[in-house]
Amino acid sequence: EVQLVESGGGLVQPGGSLRLSCAASGFIFTDYWMSWVRQAPGKGLEWVANIKLDGSERYYVDSVKGRFTISRDNAKNSLYLQMNSLRAEDTALYYCTRATLYADSWGQGTLVAVSS
Amino acid sequence: IQLTQSPSSLSASVGDRVTITCRASQGITSYLAWYQQKPGKAPKLLIYAASTLQSGVPSRFSGSGSGTDFTLTISSLQPEDFATYYCQQLNTYPITFGQGTRLEIK
Fold first, then answer.
1. How big is chain A by its Cα radius of gyration, in Å?
2. So what's the pLDDT on residue B58?
3. Do A103 and B43 touch (CB under 8 A)?
4. Closest Cα in chain B to A43
5. How confident is residue B106, by pLDDT bands cut at 50, 70 and 90?
6. How far apart are the CA of B14 and the nearest CA of chain A, in angstroms?
7. What is the pLDDT of residues A15-34, one digit of tens each?
8. 3-state SS track over B52-93
9. Closest to A19 measured CA to CA, from A7, A1, A30, A36
C-alpha cells in the first residue's frame, strides 16, 4: 500500500523558515516524480513544486521561486520542501504527492501557519 | 495556463446526471486530470489524460475533451459523490488547477 506521511509543519513568523518532510513507502520511490501541492484554508488547490526521479529537474510555481526548494533523498525514500522567507500567503495545508505525471497518491498533509 | 471550471457550485439529487466543465486558456492537448476532494480529506485522482478512469474509480465517472474544453460527467449521482471537484492541467509548467466545483445535495 502506498503511504505518504508529511511532517514538519507548524506556526512560524513572517520571514521565517520551515522544512517539510514526506516519508514514502509501499512503492519504488525512485520510479516516480514527486510533488508538493498546497491548499490555503477554505481555498482551492495550488501546485507548488515537482522534482524528477533523480532530482535532476525541479519546477516551481512563480510565487515560491527563490524562496522554496524541493529536494529528495532516494536512499531514505523521502521528499523535502525547504521554505524560506515565509509570508502570510504561504499559510496552507501542504500535501506530498506521488506523480505518475498525475498525482495518483496523496498524503494527509501538514499544516503551515505564517503569522506574527 | 488558466483553468476555469463551471459551475462553481451545483446542487443536485441522488440519481441525477451531472456535468462539470473545465476550460483552459490555451490548448493543453489531453494533459488534464480530475480530482475529488471531500471535507477534511486529501484529494483523490478520478480521471487522467482527460478520459482515462483511475483504477478503482466507479464507472459512473467519465471524462472527455481535448484542447481547451473538457467535461467530467457523473452518470448517476450517489450519496458519496457530494464533494468538491478540481481539474488540473499538466501540459505546461506551472501546473495549474481549476478553482473547484462544489457539488451539494439538493
1. 13
2. 98
3. yes
4. B99
5. confident
6. 25
7. 999 999 999 999 999 999 99
8. EECCCCCCCEEEEEECCEEEEEECCCCHHHCCEEEEEECCCC
9. A7
Quick: pLDDT tens for B45-68.
Answer: 999 999 999 999 999 999 999 999
The set of residues, in sequence order, having a beta carbon less than 8 Å from that of A6 and lying 6+ positions away, is A20, A21, A22, A94, A95, A96, A107, A108, A109, A110
Residue A100 pLDDT > 90, yes or no? no
Cell of A53: 526521479
Across the interface, do B94 and A47 touch by the CB < 8 Å criterion?
yes
Q: Which residues of A touch B97 (CB under 8 A)?
A: 44-47
Give me the residues of B, 62-101, that contact A with CB < 8 A.
86, 88, 90, 93-100
Under 8 Å between Cβ of A72 and A81: no
Q: Give the distance from residue A98's alpha carbon to the nearest chain B alpha carbon, in angstroms.
A: 11
> Is B88's CB within 8 Å of A60's CB?
no
